[in-house]
Structures are given as structure tokens and as C-alpha cells.
Automatic annotation (TrEMBL):
Keyword line: Oxidoreductase
Keyword check for Ribosomal protein: no
Family: Belongs to the aldo/keto reductase family.
Positions of the NADP-dependent oxidoreductase domain: 67-324
GO BP: response to iron ion starvation; siderophore biosynthetic process
Taxonomic placement: Eukaryota, Viridiplantae, Streptophyta, Embryophyta, Tracheophyta
PROSITE patterns: ALDOKETO_REDUCTASE_1, ALDOKETO_REDUCTASE_2, ALDOKETO_REDUCTASE_3
Molecular function in Gene Ontology: 3''-deamino-3''-oxonicotianamine reductase activity
Sections of the chain in a coiled coil: none
Protein name, UniProt field: NADP-dependent oxidoreductase domain-containing protein
Entry keyword annotation includes Oxidoreductase: yes
PANTHER family named among the record's database cross-references: ALDO/KETO REDUCTASE
CDD domains: AKR_AKR4A_4B
């Protein structure tokens, strides 16, 4: 269970969905509101606590009005079907449509108050400088039309000079000031602008560096995680240190490496799905949920949104779990190929320091 600073001891439960149509899109997720939680969950997410109240997640660098509108509509659809946790990021470009959708949901009475939501956003690599953290969070809050985020994450253990851009130029990468940036993150929490703080795409080595200086330890590490990239080492490390793990791409992502989708195309998962009368996506989400990991799953499709919530009233068998544990492992999103353009060179930073792959 994720606990840190202001969130320590508070149960937080979730189920997530993301909306996306292409690589540039990604978004949100929704959690059980804290004030309605009476009992502490043993696991995060907790099926009992989230039944009928789920979260949703999407990402999008949506400069186009069409994508903006699609994102907003998908958030509204997600709220309607029960998602309550929304995961966004400055770089996705989904903060504004998410904020608009929430405002609209409040106007329409789909939500009674902002407190019913759990909203996560993330600090982009170009703002990973101590003096830029707080201004960046203020920009995020302005985009979201909100007074606070429930969780603010360092998006990558990567710092680049220059304006926000994706992909970044290799020569713009500079060493990340883990201590200075984490101090600034802690200040965001102390000011009440982020109820909790954490990281994303961090390996155990990156986490070591944060924990060495942290007054408030990271509440969450959000990473690529699914049956085809199970992150056993990282999960064990985080469990020992009380850091909650959240999974992006729990359905295997969008063929970013051109090698197909190791989750949705998995024969092992398909066999289990057939035997259980579920879809492959549901088996993947259920497995992730059973690991005590929060799923950041996105869909723009209302039927799939609903389907992705139907994972709480059944469970995998021991035999299913054993088969899933033997699925060949393959990480898709890698720092140097994922974040940086192909041309150019790293001049001020050792690319090994940026590596986010660890068995
Ligand atoms: P769609 O929006 O058309 O439903 P990621 O792993 O990067 O989060 O991407 C999730 C992808 O999985 C999205 O493209 C989404 O497409 C798709 N998706 C979401 N839910 C399901 C589902 N239940 N079955 C199949 N595909 C799904």
C-alpha cells in the first residue's frame, strides 16, 4: 500500500483506464475518494473498495481540437461508468481536457465534488530542475482547474535542458539533481499542492538515490508493468520500502517497438481467458490487480471501459498464476529509444544512468 507523508496510513484504492489512439495519446485514472474510505485496504488497488468506483487513465499530447474533444469525452464516459482515478501528465497534453471534463461532470451532477476523484499528474524532464518543479506544478493545476493534485510524480529519472519537447535531443540531457528535485517535490506536498509525491519509470538504483535524501519517501513508482513485463525485482524492492507500484501499459502498450503486443497477443493469456470466460484484457488486468499493483488502463471505447472494470468479482487460479509467471519477459518502453530522438549524442550524461530496464 502506498504511503508517504500526508498519505501515510490512508487507504487508497483504484482501478484505472487510459484513453489513447496513438503513441502521442495517454491519460488518466480514478481512485476511491479518501474521505469515503472507512476501512484500510490490505491491497492497493482493493477490489472491495473500488467496486463501482473506478479510476481511469489517459495520456495525450493533444494539440489538436479533435484530440482535445475526444479526451474530454472519454473522461466523461469513464466517469459515467465509474472510474474515479485519472492519471495525466504535463507532456501528455491531457491536463486541460481532463480539467474541463471534471468541471463538466460537476456541472452535470455526475460528481458531487472534486474530492471524489484521485488525480495524478507528472513533472516533465525539461522541468526536472529544482527551481522549475513548483512553477511546473502550478501550471499543471491551472491546466486542471484544480487546487491540488492527489499525486505528483517525477515523470522520468531524466533531466534535459531547454523547452519541453518530445522526443528530447540527446545533447540536451544533463545529470538529474536527485536531491534538489526531490526537495522541491517535498515542498509541493508541504504546500498542499500535491497530497502525495512519487516517481515514474524509476529503477531500484534511481529509487536508492531518492531514498538516500528523502524526508518524505516516494509514495508511488509508476512503471511499465504487465504479464509480459512483470518487474519482479522492482516490485520486491518497492514492497520492502512501502512504495506502491502502479502499472502503465498493463495491456502491453501500443506496439511501440514494432514487435506486436506481448499481452493482447499472448497465447497463454488467451487460453486462460477462454477457460475463465473472460477477455485477454481482463485476465491481464486481473493478474496485475492480484499483484497489488494499480492498473493505469486506458480506452476511448465505452464498452471496453466497462469491460475493464469487470475484474473484481472473480479470480485467477493457482495454475493460471503459474502459467502467467512463465510468460517470456520483454520490456517495450526504454529511456534512450523512447524519450530521445535517434540522431545526436549524449554529451553530458552517461546513457547507462538513464537505463530503466532491470530484470
Ligand atoms: P481503445 O482506446 O481503442 O480501447 P496502453 O497499454 O498504452 O495503455 O494502451 C491501451 C490500449 O489498449 C489502447 O489503445 C486501448 O484502445 C486498448 N484497450 C483498452 N482496453 C481494452 C480491452 N478491454 N481490450 C482490448 N484493447 C483494449
Amino acid at each position: 500500500m502506498a504511503q508517504a507523508g500526508g498519505t501515510r496510513g490512508r487507504a487508497r484504492c483504484q482501478k484505472v483506464l487510459q484513453i489513447s489512439g496513438d503513441r502521442n495519446l495517454r491519460a488518466a485514472s480514478a481512485w476511491q475518494p479518501r474521505r469515503r474510505r472507512r476501512r484500510r485496504c490490505r491491497r492497493w488497488p482493493c477490489a472491495r473498495a473500488t467496486r463501482g468506483r473506478c479510476r481511469w487513465s489517459a495520456w495525450a499530447r493533444c494539440s489538436s481540437p479533435l484530440v482535445h474533444e475526444a479526451t474530454k469525452n472519454a473522461v466523461l464516459a469513464a466517469i459515467e461508468v465509474g472510474f474515479r482515478h485519472f492519471d495525466t501528465a504535463f507532456m501528455y497534453g491531457t491536463e486541460k481536457p481532463l480539467g474541463e471534463a471534471v468541471a463538466e461532470a460537476l456541472r452535470r451532477g455526475l460528481l458531487q465534488s472534486r474530492e471524489e476523484l484521485f488525480v495524478t499528474s507528472k513533472l516533465w524532464c525539461s522541468q526536472n530542475h529544482p527551481d522549475l518543479v513548483l512553477p511546473s506544478l502550478r501550471d499543471t493545476l491551472k491546466n486542471l482547474q484544480m487546487e491540488y493534485v492527489d499525486l505528483y510524480l517525477i515523470h522520468w529519472p531524466v533531466c534535459v535542458n531547454g523547452p519541453p519537447r518530445f522526443p528530447s535531443k540527446k545533447e540536451d540531457a544533463v545529470p538529474l539533481d536527485f536531491e534538489g528535485v526531490w526537495r522541491a517535490m517535498e515542498e509541493c506536498q508541504r504546500l498542499g499542492l500535491a497530497k502525495a509525491i512519487g516517481v515514474s519509470n524509476f529503477t531500484t538504483k534511481h529509487l536508492d538515490r531518492v531514498l538516500a535524501v528523502a524526508t518524505i519517501p516516494p509514495a508511488v513508482n509508476q512503471v511499465e508493468l504487465n504479464p509480459a513485463w512483470q518487474q519482479r525485482t522492482l516490485r520486491a524492492y518497492c514492497a520492502d520500502r512501502g512504495i506502491h507500484v502502479a502499472a502503465y501499459s498493463p495491456l502491453g502498450g501500443q506496439n511501440w517497438d514494432g514487435q506486436g503486443n506481448a499481452v493482447l497477443d499472448s497465447v497463454v493469456l488467451a487460453e486462460i481467458a477462454k477457460a475463465r470466460g473472460k477477455t485477454v484484457a481482463q485476465v491481464a488486468l486481473r493478474w496485475t490487480h492480484e499483484q497489488g499493483v494499480t492498473c493505469i488502463v486506458k480506452s476511448y471505447n465505452k464498452e471496453r471501459l466497462k469491460q475493464n472494470l469487470e475484474i473484481f468479482d472473480w479470480e485467477l487460479t493457482e495454475e493460471d498464476r503459474l502459467k502467467i509467471s512463465q510468460i517470456p519477459q520483454r520490456k517495450v518502453v526504454q529511456t534512450s529509444s523512447g524519450l530521445f530522438s535517434e540522431e545526436g549524442e549524449f554529451t553530458s550524461v552517461d546513457p547507462a544512468e538513464l537505463n530503466n530496464v532491470e530484470e
